[in-house]
Amino acid sequence: MTTPLPTSRTEPDGSAVIRVLSYNIRSMRDDTEALARVIRACAPDLVLVQEAPRFFRWRKKLARLAAASGQVILSGGATASGPALLSSLRATVEHTEDVLLPLTPGLHRRGFATAVVRFGRARLGVLSCHLSLQKDERYEQGGMLLDRLAAPGTPYAIAGGDLNERPGGRTFKRLATELQDCWAVAPWGGEYTSTPAEPHQRIDALFATEGIEVLGCGVPLGLPGITEADLRAATDHLPVLAALRVPAV
């Protein structure tokens, strides 16, 4: 069984330990009950969603998932072209914004779901992304991600999502040069996120700015409440879960 990650808490010095989940949910086209069970078992404070529902009754679908998994909606969905942010009631939300990225003719529209949140005296920016399948556009979007992460003016920030690229790719390397690649810093659980049936590549990741302490990060294999059957049934990606300590400001 996987060693448990630290639980969410506020430290005596005002810093906050938070659990962050990044998850491509394939527009909730699979087993949504299994999906909700996986999210709930991870006990996240923040959920960075990719491929949230974008079409007919998309808000209701996302709201049902949030309620079933013990979360509330912060931002995103169709208004961010897929990425979304959910949170537990522990978070105090200061600001949210959906960002649509420049459209390349013939390619899928991409966007960022962003927010600024507080956990006690810890304050941080948050961004969920799903980068392009086309390598040049993906590289440009990586630069936009770094620029956007610095935009809220918060001392600390996290980003996560489906990068559509392995760690050896130039966009992944660009992000990992400027940010902490949470899995590389403190590996925990499983590494590979695709596919659930035959995990063989890490194309989903969580990143954190300097100053955030990464306590552990990886695919929550063997976590109590999570079964292999649910992971396979929920969607076509495996989730990435991290425990982070964010300093007080």
UniProtKB/TrEMBL annotation:
Entry keyword annotation includes DNA repair: yes
GO molecular function annotations of the record: endonuclease activity
Domain Endonuclease/exonuclease/phosphatase: 21-237
Annotated InterPro entries: Endo/exonu/phosph_ase_sf (IPR036691), Endo/exonuclease/phosphatase (IPR005135), TDP2-like (IPR051547)
Keyword line: DNA damage, DNA repair, Endonuclease, Hydrolase, Magnesium, Metal-binding, Nuclease
Cofactor(s) essential for the protein: Mg(2+); Mn(2+)
Xref: SUPFAM superfamilies: DNase I-like (SSF56219)
Domain of life: Bacteria
Nuclease keyword on record: yes
Pfam families per record: Exo_endo_phos (PF03372)
PANTHER family, A to Z: TRAF AND TNF RECEPTOR-ASSOCIATED PROTEIN, TYROSYL-DNA PHOSPHODIESTERASE 2
Protein name from the UniProt record: Endonuclease/exonuclease/phosphatase family protein
UniProt organism field: Streptomyces xiangluensis
Lineage per the UniProt record: Bacteria, Bacillati, Actinomycetota, Actinomycetes, Kitasatosporales
